[in-house]
Amino acid sequence: MIEEKTPITFHLAELRRRILFSLTAWLIGSIAAYAHVEDIIAVISAPAGKLYFLNPAEVFFSYLQIAAVTGLFVTLPIHCYELWRFLRPGLQDKESRAFVWFMPAALILWYGGAAFSFFVVFPQAVQFFLSFSAVSLQPMFSLAAYLSFFIAFVLPFAIGFELPLALIILAHLGLVTGKSLRKKRRVFIVGAFIFAGVVSPTTDMITQTAIAVPLIFLYEGTILFMRFMKP
Fold this sequence. Notes:
The chain contains eleven helices and no strands. By secondary structure, the chain is mainly alpha-helical. It starts with a helix and ends in a 5-residue tail after the last helix. Its main location: membrane.
């Protein structure tokens, strides 16, 4: 086959070109995000209100963090496309077609999980923690701490929402079936709460439940979807 005769140096050069292109896209996206960093902070901090900084360098490095994360988040489709272009020559037609639907599905689930967290769960979580304030105890969130909490809160949802795709792939490989998933429902529920306890940015049950419950619904939705799949 032609792929077997292709020198390894060619693949390494191609990989290097794809990585450089992805890094360039990330850099451009980060620069664009930095130009609007104050607007981004205003959106992120809306549930908490005014933020504070505790040392002079905190604002600068927090701005860089926001720009880098936003740039990566926005340019993620480009990175996935470059990965597919690199792997495509070595894929068979069936594998290539599967990859074409797999990548968009993964992106949709990733952005869907992040959006669900940001618009539905995160504001409620912040308001829950603010409810503990009192006359002698007022909240004062630092910029760096709030951003770390925000990223640590949204990221598990983005990862967790990939669950249906992972289960469908396992089913396609013949490793699981809808029937086997139904039998392991209780095990998964326990595992969902364990996962939530590991990735949760806090130790309270409210946040952990907010992470675990959507995973359980996704699990049940995947079982329902598998009923319409070919055996």
